[in-house]
Amino acid sequence: MAKKSMVERQKKRERLVAQYAAKRASLKEIANDEAKPMEERFKARLKLAQLPRNSSPTRLNNRCQLTGRPHAYYRKLKISRIMLRDLGNQGLLPGMVKSSW
């Protein structure tokens, strides 16, 4: 189980990313538009830098939905390898069978 503080920090980042997504996208569009004058593009970059750092989507980490574990994360299932094994052994994941040889 991950530390509660780390899981809560991740949730806070997710909220900030959702909150500033539209503003960030519009500023990036202005900053990357070659047709706009250089001053306007520079001002857009400055405004982009003024936004909170945690509102950037690259600051998000993939974490297990059940335990909060950040490593060995399966994107398709959104759980860690340990929970995948536990749930598979309990028969809670459809299509997964315990292997034995």
UniProtKB/TrEMBL annotation:
GO terms for biological process, alphabetical: translation
Subunit structure and binding partners: Part of the 30S ribosomal subunit. Contacts proteins S3 and S10.
Keyword Ribosomal protein part of the UniProt annotation: yes
Protein name per its UniProtKB record: Small ribosomal subunit protein uS14
Pfam families (alphabetical): Ribosomal_S14 (PF00253)
GO CC, any one term: small ribosomal subunit
Gene name of this polypeptide: rpsN
Biological role: Binds 16S rRNA, required for the assembly of 30S particles and may also be responsible for determining the conformation of the 16S rRNA at the A site.
UniProt superkingdom: Bacteria
Keywords in alphabetical order: Ribonucleoprotein, Ribosomal protein, RNA-binding, rRNA-binding
InterPro entries xrefs: Ribosomal_uS14, Ribosomal_uS14_bac/plastid, Ribosomal_uS14_CS
UniProt-recorded Gene Ontology molecular function terms: rRNA binding; structural constituent of ribosome
